Amino acid sequence: MYVDLSIKPYDTSALGRILSTARRLGYEAVAVEGLDKEVEGGLRCVPRITYKYVGRPISTYEFSKGYLIAYELGEPTDIKSLSSLRGRCHVLRISNKVLAGLRKKYVNSLRNCGIPIEVSVKDLILDNGLNYNVLRGFNKLLPLVERGDVELVISSSAGDEFELIHPLELVAILKELGLSELISIKAISSLPLRVLRMVSNAV
User: Fold this and answer.
1) Which residues contact 32 (CB under 8 A, 6 or more apart)?
2) Number of structural domains in the chain
3) Least enclosed by CB within 10 Å: which of 41, 44, 53, 156?
4) pTM
């Protein structure tokens, strides 16, 4: 079961095309930014809210039950104090800026936070090739991911149907970037599926 935890339509008219394409590519569940409620119909669609991390969790979390809650880290220094987010969100999205500035001490903080780490494939791959500055930081994560110290979720952040990637193609890309096949599959299937189960259980 393939899952994409981050769909971010450029406009409301794009959502239907994205969902239709996702079904055709073999995805069985997605999380959509801006969706008001969960939708079933051949493809499970869970609403998602992404907050910018400002050093502490927001106080309105209790009003977001049934939503996938994500915090986006915008600066490498945001990684220093993540313990307050444990139990307050489902995933931590690290931006391309954070990946590009990732240092060993920050990687250790990610390991200790105990929250699945989300990386967008759009941050790793540019229109004209690989984003090498970001890949350097991504490669620092790989040993911890392979050992199971950090749980990695790969999402598309697709804004339209053309930004979706076939799951098998995505696995091949992740393997080329250094992940094992088993971890690559887990990052787009069993781990994001577990996250969605947490949403259903209002965790």
Assistant:
1) 7, 8, 9, 15, 45, 46, 47, 48
2) 1
3) 41
4) 0.89
